[in-house]
Amino acid sequence: MSEISSGQPPFAGLEFLPKKSTLHARFTGNWTNNAGIYELDDGLLLDRWYHLAYTLSDSEKRLDVYIDGEWVGFYCIQNVKTEKVVFNDGPLYIGRSFDNGFNGEICNVRYFNWRLCAEEVKQDYFDKQIVYGSKVTLFHVPTSKYLSKSSNMETSRAVGINREDDFKNCIFTVIEAYGTNVNTGNPLPFNTTFGFKHQATGGILHSHATIYGVTPVSKHQEVLVWYGRDNNDDWIIRRYNPNASKEVSDYLMSSELISISHKLSDKLALYSHPILLEDGTQEVSCHGNGNDENIKWCIELIDDSKL
Predict the structure, then answer these.
(1) Phi, psi at residue 120, to the nearest 5°?
(2) Nearest to 286 by CA among 250, 257, 261, 254
(3) Which residue from 157, 264, 278, 281 has the least number of CB within 10 angstroms?
């Protein structure tokens, strides 16, 4: 059978049907330029993250789709002797097709030059999940600085720095809230009370009322990397999305956009802004709440083997 010729180039990809958020997994074959799964399940929910995987193989004559590591659909070529998948060297579009864009956020895109099996997809999903004991960094989205501890030995102040300046000083371990016991490896749901332990020094991310100390420039409630434990070390992690449903309480994944509220400070959240201290680091405080752009952080999982 000869390969098809049409006005549209060979296409393979995962799209959403308009207004329904149902997955539309398609590819081009030598008998049609639009084969695959038309519609999967009831659609994805708004205002939450999903791990999506799409695999396609000509040798195995099949397409598979996974959501959050779970196999949810497939399409198989039946006439295996004459029909085949058509690949091409055209552009790879992420977040749009030939002309239409995706109104949402995408992160952690990975391309493999082989078809992942179900076990590999599931492992890729769980490798992105943040659990108690995970090592992470906190990236301040508005200013592109990383949360760190001041290198000045005379202060325990939390600051914002460039990653390349002192990467190992930007790493924290996710730990249980003060006075609680949680097994290492347990997943971390949103709206959970927890703590951060500074990897390099063993100090705990800490804040307290302004009567005990304020930031040098803005006079906000200060944030420290402190030694010893009390309930001033407790934080609540929330998804940064003013429109997200309060009923959403799924588990924290790497590259989530989050806000981190200080539990004892009446909803004040971890905050930073482009104000520099005397040593050139960026001021970090406990200040904003609600929809404030300056409380927007991205949590990033760190691979222990690369430390």
Answers:
(1) -70, -40
(2) 261
(3) 278
- 2-41 confidence digits (pLDDT tens): 233 344 555 667 787 777 788 889 898 999 988 999 888 7
| d(C-alpha 150, C-alpha 282), whole Å | 10
- Which tens digit of pLDDT belongs to each residue from 137-173? 999 999 999 999 998 766 789 999 998 889 999 999 9
Residues 67, 52: Cα–Cα separation, whole Å: 5
- Structure tokens, 93: 């579009």
Please give the CATH architecture assigned to the domain spanning 135-306: Trefoil (2.80)
Instruction: List the structure tokens of 216.
Output: 């040098």
The residues, any chain, with a CB within 8 Å of residue 78's CB and separated by 6 or more, are none
Structure tokens at 125: 């999903």
Answer whether 231's CB lies under 8 Å from 165's CB: no
Q: Considering the chain, tell me which residue range(s) the CATH 2.80.10.50 domain(s) occupy.
A: 135-306
- 12-126 is classed CATH 2.60.120.200: yes
What is the per-residue burial (b if ≥16 Cβ within 10 Å, else e) of 103-131?
Answer: eeeeeeeeeeeeebeeeebbebbeebbbb
